[in-house]
Structures are given as C-alpha cells and as structure tokens.
Write a structure and sequence with these properties.
The protein is globular and about 40 Å long. The chain is mainly alpha-helical.
C-alpha cells in the first residue's frame, strides 16, 4: 500500500501486543459513537469490512495492509457524525449546498482520527475513499495510483454494499445491476484491477453478503481480531 513505510510497519508490529487492548478500546468507542449517531451507517461499515478484506486479499495485500484496510473500512464513514440529519436522511435529491456538506465527511473522518498514530494508514484510507481513478472524486481530486491502494479497494467495496442496500432515498439494486455499474465505471471511477479482483470471487459469495450475512453475524467479532476475516450513490 503506498505511503506505508517499512520501518513504521515494524514499529507498529513491535508494540502491537502491549497496546492492542487500548487500541481496541479506542476503536470500539469510535464505533459506539458512530452507531449512536446512525445505526444504518454503522451496519454498512461492518458489511463493507468483509467485502474490503476479500478484495484486499485478492489484490495481494499483506497482513499489516489488511489490518489498516480493516480499520479504514470500519471507520470510513465516521465523518458522517458531522453531517446534519436533514442531509444524511433526506429522502430526495441533495441540492448543491447539501452535497457540499456530504462531501466533507472524508475530511471530517480524517480529522476525528487525527492524533491516533496506530490509525495513520487507516486515516489515509478514510480520507481518500471517495477519490476516483480518473481524478473526478473528492476531496483532493487524486487520480490513478496517486490514490492509496486501500482506498481504491474500499471505494469498490463501499459502492457495492451501498448499491445493494436499501436507503431512505432509494431501493437496493440487484446483484446484476450493481455489478453492471461497477463494470461501467471501471477505469473512470474505479481502479479496473480492483473490479477485476471482484470478478474473481464467485457470484454466490457476493450474493450471500447482499442477503445480510455480514460481520455482525460473526460471533465475538472484534476489530483487528486475528482470523475474523475468513454518479453511483450517496455514501
């Protein structure tokens, strides 16, 4: 994953054992805040974790990169805590001003995580998960491999789950409709290699996820737990 230094990764590994309980407690506090603010966003984030990790493995991420991707996926919509309900839950189309507020959520999420050094790589994923392959995304307009690989993976996972979930402003798309959208936007919105990785998993796996069997159904799931990973939409 771009931006992940070797020495930094080694330092993280060397301190993981002694600090893991504190880190997990911090993560759980952030997730409780998100769930309290918006249970739908919280559930979407947990489903997106599983999809992201499947794609991350297929894209060749190592264990440390998968861990950062997991945390980034869990926290990617944390910034929506700062988006007003009248925008977040609006059943109709957003106007230009409301879209401007919605587009702030990656930046707000990054700011909330500021100072938590063990989430540095995850923070990058949170900040960039709406950047698009062709440079038309937000908030920075990054393009291609300027975008963190974890963020590119999360963008596909986020889009797929959002499209196949009911929202207050529209009904869920079918698997076929969602995949057609991913394919049509490969090379413009999405890294085409990540979309190709999506297609290497059987359709049945993805359909099972869209039927609601997510990480919330895995007993005793904890963030970071070893072995726990066995124009699209308003997100």
């Amino acid at each position: 994953m771009r931006g992940t230094g070797t020495s930094k990764s080694k330092l993280f590994i060397s301190h993981l054992g002694e600090s893991e309980e504190v880190e997990r407690a911090m993560l759980n506090s952030l997730l409780v805040a998100l769930k309290t603010r918006d249970a739908e966003t919280y559930d979407h984030s947990k489903r997106t974790v599983r999809i992201s990790l499947l794609l991350g493995r297929e894209c060749g991420l190592d264990q440390m990169e998968l861990r950062s991707l997991e945390f980034g996926a869990l926290l990617h919509d944390l910034g929506k805590i700062g988006v007003p309900d009248k925008v977040l839950r609006k059943p109709g189309k957003l106007n230009e001003f409301e879209w401007a507020m919605m587009r702030r959520h990656p930046y707000l999420g990054q700011q909330i995580l500021r100072g938590l050094s063990f989430l540095d790589d995850a923070k990058t994923i949170v900040a960039q998960h709406h950047e698009k392959w062709d440079g038309s995304g937000y908030p920075l307009g990054l393009r291609g491999e300027e975008i963190d690989l974890g963020a590119r993976i999360l963008f596909v996972a986020d889009a797929f789950d959002a499209m196949t979930s009911d929202r207050v402003y529209r009904q869920a798309k079918s698997y076929d409709e969602a995949v057609a959208e991913l394919d049509s936007c490969a090379g413009t919105h999405f890294d085409p290699r990540v979309v190709a990785a999506f297609h290497r998993y059987p359709r049945e796996d993805w359909e099972r996820l869209t039927r609601g069997k997510s990480l919330s159904a895995v007993p005793n799931y904890q963030p970071g737990q070893r072995g726990s990973h066995a124009p699209l939409d308003r997100r």
